[in-house]
Amino acid sequence: MLMLDADILWPLWSDAADVTFDDPGVAPEAAIVKAVEEPVLLGYYPEVPDGRAMLVLAGGGYTALMVGREGVQVARWLTGLGYTAYVLVHRFPDTANGPSASLDDAREALRLIRGQGHDAVGVVGLSSGGHLAACLAAEYPTEWTSRSEAARPDLFVIGYAPISTNAKGRTIVADKPPLPQVEKQAMYDRLQPDAQLLPSPPPAFIVYAGNDPVVPVENARRLHAAWQAAGGDAELHVFADAPHGFALDTPGLPVSVWPLLCAAWLRQVGFLD
User: Fold this and answer.
1) Distance between CA 53 and CA 123 in Å, rounded?
2) CB 160 within 8 A of CB 245
3) How far apart, in Å, are the Cα atoms of 129 and each of 61, 94, 125?
4) How many C-beta atoms surround the C-beta of residue 174 within 10 A?
5) Rounded distance, CA 102 to CA 184, Å?
6) pLDDT score for 1
7) How far apart are CA 264 and CA 111, in angstroms?
8) Interstrand relation of 18-21 and 33-38 (parallel, antiparallel or unpaired)
9) Is the dihedral of CA 180, 183, 188, 193 positive or negative?
10) What is the pLDDT of residues 196-221, one digit of tens each?
Protein backbone atom coordinates (compact mmCIF):
# COMPACT_ATOMS: atom_id res chain seq x y z
CA MET A 1 0.00 0.00 0.00
CA LEU A 2 1.35 3.40 -0.95
CA MET A 3 1.81 6.22 1.56
CA LEU A 4 -1.52 7.67 2.79
CA ASP A 5 -3.47 5.40 0.40
CA ALA A 6 -2.26 7.38 -2.62
CA ASP A 7 -2.62 5.93 -6.10
CA ILE A 8 0.88 7.02 -7.09
CA LEU A 9 3.96 8.31 -5.28
CA TRP A 10 6.65 10.54 -6.81
CA PRO A 11 9.76 11.47 -4.84
CA LEU A 12 10.84 14.93 -5.99
CA TRP A 13 14.62 15.04 -5.78
CA SER A 14 15.78 11.49 -5.03
CA ASP A 15 14.81 7.86 -5.59
CA ALA A 16 12.71 7.53 -2.44
CA ALA A 17 10.62 9.57 -0.05
CA ASP A 18 11.82 10.10 3.52
CA VAL A 19 8.94 11.33 5.68
CA THR A 20 8.33 11.03 9.43
CA PHE A 21 4.77 10.95 10.74
CA ASP A 22 3.70 12.11 14.19
CA ASP A 23 1.71 8.87 14.60
CA PRO A 24 2.20 6.30 11.82
CA GLY A 25 -0.85 4.36 13.00
CA VAL A 26 -3.55 6.96 12.37
CA ALA A 27 -5.85 6.96 9.36
CA PRO A 28 -4.64 8.89 6.29
CA GLU A 29 -7.34 11.53 6.87
CA ALA A 30 -5.81 12.41 10.24
CA ALA A 31 -2.11 12.09 9.42
CA ILE A 32 0.40 14.72 10.55
CA VAL A 33 3.93 14.93 9.15
CA LYS A 34 6.56 16.16 11.61
CA ALA A 35 9.73 15.87 9.49
CA VAL A 36 10.61 15.63 5.80
CA GLU A 37 14.08 14.64 4.65
CA GLU A 38 13.11 13.82 1.05
CA PRO A 39 9.85 15.36 -0.25
CA VAL A 40 7.22 13.43 -2.15
CA LEU A 41 4.15 14.06 -4.30
CA LEU A 42 1.14 11.83 -3.69
CA GLY A 43 -1.38 11.36 -6.50
CA TYR A 44 -5.10 10.57 -6.11
CA TYR A 45 -7.21 9.63 -9.13
CA PRO A 46 -10.94 10.29 -9.66
CA GLU A 47 -13.29 7.62 -10.94
CA VAL A 48 -14.08 9.73 -13.99
CA PRO A 49 -11.23 12.20 -14.69
CA ASP A 50 -12.10 15.46 -16.42
CA GLY A 51 -8.56 16.14 -17.62
CA ARG A 52 -7.76 18.80 -15.01
CA ALA A 53 -5.55 18.51 -11.94
CA MET A 54 -5.10 20.22 -8.58
CA LEU A 55 -1.96 20.54 -6.48
CA VAL A 56 -2.90 20.42 -2.77
CA LEU A 57 -0.72 22.23 -0.22
CA ALA A 58 -1.52 21.53 3.43
CA GLY A 59 -0.75 23.82 6.35
CA GLY A 60 1.17 23.32 9.55
CA GLY A 61 3.10 26.53 10.05
CA TYR A 62 6.09 25.31 8.02
CA THR A 63 7.12 23.17 11.00
CA ALA A 64 4.69 20.29 10.39
CA LEU A 65 2.11 19.32 7.77
CA MET A 66 -1.55 18.64 8.51
CA VAL A 67 -1.40 16.33 5.56
CA GLY A 68 -4.54 14.43 6.56
CA ARG A 69 -7.08 17.18 7.28
CA GLU A 70 -5.69 19.68 4.79
CA GLY A 71 -4.20 17.26 2.29
CA VAL A 72 -5.82 13.85 1.92
CA GLN A 73 -9.31 15.08 2.84
CA VAL A 74 -9.01 17.94 0.37
CA ALA A 75 -7.72 15.58 -2.32
CA ARG A 76 -10.71 13.29 -1.88
CA TRP A 77 -13.08 16.24 -2.13
CA LEU A 78 -11.38 17.23 -5.37
CA THR A 79 -11.40 13.74 -6.87
CA GLY A 80 -15.12 13.66 -6.14
CA LEU A 81 -15.40 16.68 -8.43
CA GLY A 82 -13.47 14.90 -11.17
CA TYR A 83 -9.99 16.35 -10.65
CA THR A 84 -6.79 14.39 -10.36
CA ALA A 85 -5.40 15.61 -7.04
CA TYR A 86 -1.77 15.70 -5.95
CA VAL A 87 -0.79 16.25 -2.31
CA LEU A 88 2.69 17.64 -1.73
CA VAL A 89 4.69 16.58 1.33
CA HIS A 90 7.35 19.28 1.22
CA ARG A 91 10.43 20.16 3.25
CA PHE A 92 10.41 22.91 5.86
CA PRO A 93 12.51 26.08 6.03
CA ASP A 94 15.17 25.23 8.60
CA THR A 95 18.91 25.02 9.10
CA ALA A 96 19.22 21.92 6.91
CA ASN A 97 17.14 23.20 4.01
CA GLY A 98 17.35 27.00 4.07
CA PRO A 99 14.46 29.42 3.45
CA SER A 100 13.71 28.36 -0.15
CA ALA A 101 13.03 24.63 0.37
CA SER A 102 9.22 24.67 0.53
CA LEU A 103 8.85 26.89 -2.52
CA ASP A 104 11.41 24.88 -4.49
CA ASP A 105 9.48 21.69 -3.72
CA ALA A 106 6.17 23.27 -4.75
CA ARG A 107 7.64 24.49 -8.04
CA GLU A 108 9.08 21.05 -8.80
CA ALA A 109 5.75 19.40 -7.93
CA LEU A 110 3.99 21.75 -10.32
CA ARG A 111 6.50 20.93 -13.04
CA LEU A 112 5.93 17.19 -12.56
CA ILE A 113 2.15 17.60 -12.67
CA ARG A 114 2.38 19.73 -15.81
CA GLY A 115 4.33 16.91 -17.41
CA GLN A 116 1.38 14.53 -17.04
CA GLY A 117 -0.51 16.23 -19.84
CA HIS A 118 -3.44 17.62 -17.86
CA ASP A 119 -5.62 20.18 -19.63
CA ALA A 120 -5.10 22.65 -16.76
CA VAL A 121 -3.56 22.64 -13.29
CA GLY A 122 -4.87 24.56 -10.28
CA VAL A 123 -3.61 24.75 -6.72
CA VAL A 124 -5.46 24.54 -3.38
CA GLY A 125 -3.56 25.78 -0.33
CA LEU A 126 -4.71 26.10 3.27
CA SER A 127 -2.99 27.98 6.11
CA SER A 128 0.79 27.98 5.47
CA GLY A 129 -0.05 25.95 2.37
CA GLY A 130 -2.10 28.93 1.20
CA HIS A 131 0.92 31.17 1.63
CA LEU A 132 2.97 28.69 -0.39
CA ALA A 133 0.27 28.54 -3.06
CA ALA A 134 0.20 32.33 -3.38
CA CYS A 135 3.98 32.31 -3.78
CA LEU A 136 3.44 30.33 -7.01
CA ALA A 137 1.74 33.44 -8.42
CA ALA A 138 4.58 35.73 -7.32
CA GLU A 139 8.08 36.52 -8.48
CA TYR A 140 10.72 34.01 -7.43
CA PRO A 141 13.48 35.76 -5.43
CA THR A 142 16.26 36.76 -7.79
CA GLU A 143 18.97 36.01 -5.22
CA TRP A 144 17.82 32.41 -4.70
CA THR A 145 18.93 29.58 -6.97
CA SER A 146 15.85 27.98 -8.49
CA ARG A 147 15.93 24.19 -8.63
CA SER A 148 12.98 23.99 -10.99
CA GLU A 149 11.36 26.05 -13.70
CA ALA A 150 7.58 25.80 -13.70
CA ALA A 151 4.78 27.90 -15.13
CA ARG A 152 2.37 29.22 -12.51
CA PRO A 153 -0.93 27.40 -11.92
CA ASP A 154 -4.06 28.19 -13.94
CA LEU A 155 -6.21 28.81 -10.86
CA PHE A 156 -5.87 29.31 -7.09
CA VAL A 157 -7.93 28.37 -4.04
CA ILE A 158 -6.41 29.92 -0.89
CA GLY A 159 -7.71 29.56 2.64
CA TYR A 160 -6.75 31.26 5.94
CA ALA A 161 -3.15 31.82 4.84
CA PRO A 162 -0.53 34.04 6.55
CA ILE A 163 0.20 36.04 3.41
CA SER A 164 2.38 38.81 4.80
CA THR A 165 1.54 39.65 8.43
CA ASN A 166 4.46 37.52 9.61
CA ALA A 167 6.93 39.61 7.60
CA LYS A 168 9.21 42.12 9.28
CA GLY A 169 7.73 45.61 8.95
CA ARG A 170 4.30 44.30 7.93
CA THR A 171 3.00 42.72 11.12
CA ILE A 172 -0.22 44.01 12.64
CA VAL A 173 0.58 42.82 16.18
CA ALA A 174 2.68 45.39 18.01
CA ASP A 175 6.22 44.25 18.89
CA LYS A 176 5.66 40.80 17.43
CA PRO A 177 8.88 38.80 17.95
CA PRO A 178 10.56 36.92 15.07
CA LEU A 179 9.33 33.41 14.45
CA PRO A 180 11.53 30.39 15.10
CA GLN A 181 13.32 28.98 13.13
CA VAL A 182 15.50 31.75 11.72
CA GLU A 183 15.03 30.34 8.21
CA LYS A 184 11.25 30.37 8.61
CA GLN A 185 11.23 34.06 9.50
CA ALA A 186 13.64 34.75 6.63
CA MET A 187 11.25 32.98 4.26
CA TYR A 188 8.25 35.02 5.42
CA ASP A 189 10.30 38.21 5.14
CA ARG A 190 11.33 37.40 1.58
CA LEU A 191 8.12 35.79 0.32
CA GLN A 192 5.29 38.31 0.62
CA PRO A 193 2.99 37.31 -2.25
CA ASP A 194 0.70 40.33 -1.97
CA ALA A 195 3.69 42.61 -2.60
CA GLN A 196 5.32 40.42 -5.25
CA LEU A 197 2.49 39.22 -7.49
CA LEU A 198 3.32 38.90 -11.15
CA PRO A 199 0.99 40.74 -13.55
CA SER A 200 -2.36 39.27 -14.58
CA PRO A 201 -2.59 36.46 -12.00
CA PRO A 202 -5.03 33.61 -12.73
CA PRO A 203 -8.47 33.53 -11.06
CA ALA A 204 -8.46 33.04 -7.29
CA PHE A 205 -10.97 31.96 -4.65
CA ILE A 206 -10.02 33.25 -1.20
CA VAL A 207 -11.69 32.13 2.05
CA TYR A 208 -10.95 33.25 5.62
CA ALA A 209 -12.43 33.58 9.11
CA GLY A 210 -13.02 37.15 10.23
CA ASN A 211 -12.13 36.36 13.84
CA ASP A 212 -9.19 34.02 13.19
CA PRO A 213 -6.92 34.31 16.26
CA VAL A 214 -3.94 32.76 14.45
CA VAL A 215 -4.01 34.36 10.99
CA PRO A 216 -5.50 37.88 11.02
CA VAL A 217 -8.12 38.51 8.33
CA GLU A 218 -6.01 41.45 7.16
CA ASN A 219 -4.09 38.81 5.18
CA ALA A 220 -7.22 38.16 3.12
CA ARG A 221 -7.78 41.84 2.45
CA ARG A 222 -4.17 42.36 1.42
CA LEU A 223 -4.20 39.39 -0.95
CA HIS A 224 -7.56 40.27 -2.50
CA ALA A 225 -6.54 43.88 -3.10
CA ALA A 226 -3.19 42.85 -4.55
CA TRP A 227 -4.81 40.33 -6.89
CA GLN A 228 -7.13 42.97 -8.27
CA ALA A 229 -4.37 45.60 -8.50
CA ALA A 230 -2.29 43.14 -10.56
CA GLY A 231 -5.17 42.73 -13.02
CA GLY A 232 -6.55 39.41 -11.79
CA ASP A 233 -10.02 38.26 -10.76
CA ALA A 234 -10.41 37.16 -7.14
CA GLU A 235 -13.48 36.14 -5.16
CA LEU A 236 -13.23 36.75 -1.41
CA HIS A 237 -15.34 35.09 1.30
CA VAL A 238 -14.91 36.07 4.94
CA PHE A 239 -16.95 34.12 7.50
CA ALA A 240 -17.51 36.16 10.65
CA ASP A 241 -17.09 33.34 13.16
CA ALA A 242 -14.98 30.30 12.33
CA PRO A 243 -11.97 28.55 13.84
CA HIS A 244 -8.52 28.74 12.34
CA GLY A 245 -7.91 25.62 10.30
CA PHE A 246 -11.58 25.07 9.49
CA ALA A 247 -10.66 22.92 6.46
CA LEU A 248 -13.54 20.62 5.44
CA ASP A 249 -14.74 19.35 8.82
CA THR A 250 -16.70 22.05 10.64
CA PRO A 251 -20.27 20.68 10.51
CA GLY A 252 -22.99 22.98 11.77
CA LEU A 253 -21.05 26.19 11.21
CA PRO A 254 -21.73 28.59 8.30
CA VAL A 255 -18.12 28.18 7.13
CA SER A 256 -18.86 24.53 6.34
CA VAL A 257 -20.50 25.63 3.07
CA TRP A 258 -17.30 27.06 1.62
CA PRO A 259 -16.54 23.93 -0.49
CA LEU A 260 -19.98 24.30 -2.12
CA LEU A 261 -19.33 27.98 -2.82
CA CYS A 262 -15.92 27.08 -4.19
CA ALA A 263 -17.35 24.41 -6.48
CA ALA A 264 -19.90 26.91 -7.81
CA TRP A 265 -17.08 29.37 -8.44
CA LEU A 266 -15.01 26.70 -10.20
CA ARG A 267 -17.92 26.13 -12.58
CA GLN A 268 -18.36 29.87 -13.11
CA VAL A 269 -14.73 30.34 -14.15
CA GLY A 270 -14.83 27.25 -16.40
CA PHE A 271 -12.62 25.01 -14.27
CA LEU A 272 -15.36 22.49 -13.49
CA ASP A 273 -17.89 20.95 -15.87
Assistant:
1) 8
2) yes
3) 8, 16, 4
4) 5
5) 10
6) 54
7) 28
8) antiparallel
9) negative
10) 999 999 999 999 999 999 999 999 99
